[in-house]
Amino acid sequence: MGGGATIGRIIETEADLAEGAAWLAARDRHLAGALALTGLPPLRRRADGFAGLLSAIVGQQLSVAAADTIWRRLEAAGATSPAGLLALPDATLRGCGLSAAKLRAARALALAPIDHAALRLLPDEALIARLTALPGIGVWTAEIHALFALGRADVFPAGDLALREAARLLFGLPARPAPARLRAMAAAWSPWRAVAARVMWAYYRAAKQREGVRA
User: Fold this and answer.
1) Residue ranges of the domains in the chain?
2) What is the rounded distance in angstroms from the CA atom of residue 128 to the CA atom of residue 146?
3) Which CATH number fits domain 49-149: 3.40.50.2300, 1.10.340.30, 3.10.50.40, 3.40.50.720?
4) What's the pLDDT tens digit per position in 168-191?
5) Which residues contact 62 (CB under 8 A, 6 or more apart)?
6) Predicted structure pTM score
7) Cα angle: 157, vertex 160, 166; to 5 degrees
8) Region label for 47, one of left (φ > 0), alpha (ψ between -120 and 50) or beta (otherwise)
9) 11/157 Cα distance (integer angstroms)
């Protein structure tokens, strides 16, 4: 993830993605090859605030499809606002697909006094530190929120299983790199590490479809 005392680029549009992708392709032949295969990856921006953080919690250790299904159920139940979630019994939320751990994290999040406007002004490292201080929010969840909800251009969730597998395939590694190794590899992609992550997710989906396995 990015450092420094100021906020770097924010990815808002496909033009921002294209700028970052061109920068990466000019500097890394593997990412250039991935882009040639997949084209520009999707923007995938989401709203921030409570709903954005809750969405990141829902997505922990799940496929995109599974997380989307649970999210639609939560929306239908009116559980994507703090008041709406707190008004529902545990049984209803479990019926939407929340595990016990995610249910506890979601309720803690709904009760937490978070200044979301202030979060938008924090540099990447301070932002991740603030988010991981919340119950149920680990580094992966914080980085996913920073990347997709806040649009941070230089955040890279190195612990993501799909990114680790994409790195194995794309760079011809004998095994999935450990998160620390992948984070070290990603240092060369700064200040566009979030675009590199999007490219690698797109490559992962393409590679798994080519192998006959759903991503």
Assistant:
1) 14-44+156-210, 49-149
2) 8
3) 1.10.340.30
4) 999 999 999 999 999 999 999 999
5) 70
6) 0.87
7) 105
8) beta
9) 16
